[in-house]
Amino acid sequence: MLALLLLAALVTAGAPWRRGLGLGLAALLLPWSLVLPGDPLLRAVVALLALWGVARCYDLAVARRPMTPLARMVFVVALIDTRRLQWGPARVDLSAFLRVALWVPLGLLALCTALLHDPGPLRWGCGMLAMYALGETGEALFRGVLALLGAHGPPIQRTPIAASSLREFWGERWNLVVNRWLREHFFLPWARRRRPGRGLLLSFLASATIHAWFIGVALGPAMAASMGLYFVIQGALLTLELPLRVARWPAVAAHAWTLASIVLPSPLFVEPMLHLFAAPARHV
Questions:
Q1: Which of 271, 240, 257 has the alpha carbon at shortest distance from 114?
Q2: Could you tell me if 120 and 132 are in contact, meaning their C-beta atoms sit under 8 angstroms apart?
């Protein structure tokens, strides 16, 4: 899988036929992930990485600025956009590792509690906390590792719980790596045509497809539909914010709207994720 992705990165440059060939090679990762044996979590991770590799090769295929072969290979395997990194002196970001030390045990405790309970408010609430802790851990860990390497890049996420609207949550705070990719390839092309609503709709449909894909590979169509539906609902709720004038609401009300919109449908998201972790947990 890795060799095929690196080959695709090397090919995807220069003439249009080479870019198309590289993207086609990367696309072979998708059917390969469908036949991979192993537990659901492993299959989901491989399916997600395969899809992200295709997305990265698409970035290379449409890129205007040339990149060296080494830079292209690093770009397709990195979880962050290496083109946005800024370099300077290496340092130890103690606060980042302190956040890791905080979120890892909290997330594990929440995950174990969720897995020990049947579907219901306690299971779903702890599952949401576990997923939130996973995102915060990823942000802090990447921040700390980049500092050790002497690099600085845009955040992976920015305290999502502080959002006062769904637009702020999904557009400025949560999972900004995927957000930037969706914004660049789905939202902005339509926003430039003065159709931001269509761009927003397509962004959420793409997000629903991405999540449904790796869940479906691991757990089947029912769980895939549950995951995809969550993001469809989020897109629908987000379109209501403008006519409801949520931006003009008092801060407490706007924050309550945001949390309710994310949390109330969350079992559709949380239950598939907990099923992914259930099999490995039984072997611990």
A1: 271
A2: no
Q: Are 151 and 78 in contact (CB under 8 A)?
A: no
The pair of structure tokens assigned to 11 is 């090919």
Calpha distance 168→21 (Å, rounded) = 38
- pLDDT of 280: 64
- Pairwise CA distance, residues 28 & 168, whole Å: 35
Number of H helices, E strands in the chain: 14, 2
Q: What is the CA radius of gyration of the chain?
A: 20
Cα(274)–Cα(87) distance, integer angstroms: 38
User: Which helix (H) or strand (E) element contains residue 151?
Assistant: strand 151-152
φ and ψ of 80, to 5 deg: -115, 165
**Average pLDDT for residues 177-185, to the nearest whole number?**
92
Q: What is the pLDDT of residues 21-61, one digit of tens each?
A: 999 999 999 988 888 777 899 899 999 999 999 999 999 99
State the CB neighbour count (10 A cutoff) for residue 27: 15
DSSP per-residue string spanning 240-257: HHHHHTGGGS-HHHHHHH
